[in-house]
Amino acid sequence: MAPKEDMLPPGWEDLDRQMGQLFMMGFDGTSVNPQIRSLIEDYHLGSVLLTAKNLTSAEETTQLVLELQTIARNAGHPVPLLIALDQENGGVNSLYDEIYIRQFPSAMGMAATGSKSLAHEVAIATAQELKAVGVNWILGPVLDVLTNVRNQPLGVRTTGDDPQEASQYGVQFMKGYREAGLVTCGKHFPSYGNLEFLGSHTDVPIITESLEQLSLSALVPFRNAIIQGLDAMMVGGVSMSSAGMNVMHACLSDQVVDELLRKDLRFQGVVVSECLEMEALTHNIGVGGGTVMAKNAGCDIILLCRSFPVQQEAINGLKLGVENGIIGRARIEQSLHRVLALKSRCTSWEQALNPPGLPSLTQMQPSHTNLSTHAYNNSISVVRDRQNLLPLSNVIEPGEELLLLTPLVKPLPASAVSLSVAESMHGPLERDRTASVVSGESVFKELGRSLSRQRNGRVLHTSYTANGMRPIHEDLIRRASAVIVVTADANRNLYQQGFSKHVSLSCQSQYSPSGDRREKPVIVVAVSSPYDFAMDSSIGTYVCTYDFTETALQALVKVLYGELTPMGLLPGSINRSQKLYQSRQHWLVENWNEERDSVGLDALLNAVRGDSPHGQRSELLGVASHSFLLRREDIDEAHFVVRNSSTQALYGFCATYFFRSTGTGVIGCLIVDPSRRKLSIGHSLHSRAIRTLLQRRGLKRFQLGSRLPGIYLGIPTVNPVERKRLRQWFANLGWNTALSRSVCSVILRNLTTWVPPEGLAATLQNVEVTYDLVYGWDFARAILDHIKTNARQGVADIYRMALGSAPNCGIIRAKRPFDGVILGSIVIYNERSALAEHMPVLRGTQTSVGGISSPVISPCADDYSTVMQGLILLAIRQIRKLNANAVVMDCVDGDGNFDCLSTMGFSMLHSFEEVNCDAATWTMMHSS
């Protein structure tokens, strides 16, 4: 006989009734439909998920929830329903009512205020409003750490990239929700903060960190929330692939739920699965089987969003699993105990059938309105304003015109849980215009009107798209006296980055009516992710709002016109002057001496090459000691060694370059003898390199990885284990590796038998683009102007070298035929060129080879991939004329380009992560 404390309360003996409590389900429509009624009456459903598609107003939500609870009561449910929804604030609110429900900043916006107490107050207010309409379970807080900020679907739904900060804010949100009477659900365990997206929509995102790496960072907020009494935990539908952990769906894995969450983290609360209506799960396993697997893994509540047939399949699958003995009754009863305990903490029939409703919301309204305004006013962050363009009255007169340029964006996503992870991979889905937040286009129209009203002056407003700069934009820029460019997740919508830079460059070269060159003020405002231009100091005035709700943009207008002093700071590691990790500096670092150290460096390079894992191509193939020496008048070089002064053997080497034209200090290489690692040699070299670069006059930014010379383009990433180790090592030294950008080198082998993809030639003929191959400085001005619009550090230097190395280097241009505007360019070179000396990837290929480098596509190009493929196709044809057997393409930006290249037959040689940071960050670190 079971112990008395494990006995179920009376009325719970029936298996069907037990099982119904172990599901959470949603439904379509804004009123009770036959499907949700049947689930409650016939299947004893215990928890209902409401999403933005169910909710039209606070009043109707209250009535809907009351009706659901009344159905449950009349059907004989012993306890009320759990009514759950997302209300993360910012752009992710399921319940929206402009009269009764207040808008508060996103999680990252709250972190930008720097106030944990304010976060606690906002959480209480959010939960009080939900409690008033009858909701008793909030699916929050988000506890993910954004360990990789680029191309991640969560964005501002997290508090940032710092695990301790995410933990502190997560706990404050959780405590606030509970204080107002709701139960909580942390998400998305074990982490959605660094997902890799591979394959089709039927494949799930992958976590590649090992458990040890997750434990040091991503799991910290989850662990602390558990200690502080988190009620429930949502386990995601991601896969995991690392040493000792290969899981297809985390929420279906006992390794994740029973072992990691229950045993290692000692979580005793309710475990909720991710929605099992994911296409990937349906395709690979089936919902019935997935339900059984989730239950056996340790999930207490299985989530199924809205498809009635699928929901029935899940319930039948669970029942069949019990009948077949796959699932024990003890596990069912254990989950039921947890669910009933959760319900006892947040609801009773008296509460469920008497929601406070509008009278309560009316009473809260004044204080919550003030709290909302206060929170937004404290979140707006001016990251940079080097030329003192703010307030706008500094740079624009009342009678002058202000130009607002905004992207066409989709409506803000509401209920995150109602969208599967697979949907999140492809961006927010379209929603009804009547849903919780209106489209970005409408919001930005209101922003334009607010800007106009506030200054009593004319505001020109137009949108921009992936089609880039158009004549209308150029005309409006010429007319306006100042320009505001809005971006929304530019890291996931790269056209926005190109467009913003194009506008910035265009405004730098404007002329006054008298013919004098006059720089036009440009302000870039990121209205979602703050990482759009966080580390790009070429944007001189940069403001972040963290969401584009109407309340956020009202606060923005006040900041732009000087009515409000911006108080927000970028959350996480970017804005924190953290101390560099100080290792014991017991290694003497000396300046490189070519005559003394060349032989020793060649020996060190051989040792590092020999240490490469079997079957992995070393990045140092083809590199010799002279490969690091540029010997150019416009680039300052300083290289350092740690050596044995008796034997002359080198233990470590570091190459640095200062590119005067852009003010960029670059660490191009840092290598240590494999037999002498973990002895602080690398720390010593790195510290000397940073101190030397900080002394360069005009230093604006730092970069880890050099495109010229192209030896290490950044942190090597081919070996995942080594990549993680190096990222952590450089992060400990102060580099913000979360803001890395991918860059790679690729190769096309068997050139003699290669044929272009079917239909490519025809596609290129149908596009209005002309191509030519040019050599020498006569073409420099137009090409270098084009390069400025969209190229990363080092690319311009490669083009300058190519222009000065005719006839062994040339440049292929793609041009618009009717006006000659350059739409794209690419460098082409042979083994005899000066450029080949600094591109060892070319010499390391043991065959006759030609080189392509640094494609640059203009924001004006209508079809990015077509122009890119056209340039590459012509380059391949030119190299083939030289009787080469292969083509190597280096310095390729990896953000979305590799798919285009692989269809043309290229395969990966080396991949890297290029890391940038503002010089001011290092200055603070070394002065603090």
TrEMBL record:
Matches recorded under InterPro entries: Acyl_CoA_acyltransferase (IPR016181), GH (IPR017853), Glyco_hydro_3_C_sf (IPR036881), Glyco_hydro_3_N (IPR001764), Glyco_hydro_3_N_sf (IPR036962), GNAT_dom (IPR000182), NagZ_Beta-hexosaminidase (IPR050226)
Molecular functions per Gene Ontology: acyltransferase activity, transferring groups other than amino-acyl groups; hydrolase activity, hydrolyzing O-glycosyl compounds
One GO BP: peptidoglycan turnover
Domain Glycoside hydrolase family 3 N-terminal: 15-341
SUPFAM superfamilies on file: (Trans)glycosidases (SSF51445), Acyl-CoA N-acyltransferases (Nat) (SSF55729)
Keywords (A to Z) from UniProt: Carbohydrate metabolism, Glycoprotein, Glycosidase, Hydrolase
N-acetyltransferase domain sequence ranges: 631-704
Protein family per UniProt: Belongs to the glycosyl hydrolase 3 family.
Name recorded for this polypeptide: Glycoside hydrolase family 3 N-terminal domain-containing protein
